[in-house]
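[step 3/7] fold_predict: job queued, chain A
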Amino acid sequence: MLRSAEFSASERSCMFLRYLVERALDGSGHQLKERTIGVDVFGRDATYDTGKDAIVRVSANGVRKRLLAHYANADL
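[step 4/7] structure written:
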């Protein structure tokens, strides 16, 4: 999926999706929080203001859009 046309142009979306899938597979997906993702994926400081820095929310929206496009174009 990460090599698909929808994802290959966005390193940020690829990093985010890979992180989410890895956490789901290792059983820690239920522990994901916006701040944790910001720190682990996007290198933010642990005290960053999630209200002022929307990187995680914006990136999640981008991943959702890319997933929708990917599955809309997939040969099922």
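[step 5/7] annotate
The chain is about 60% helix and 0% strand.
The first helix runs from residue 5 to 8.
exit 0
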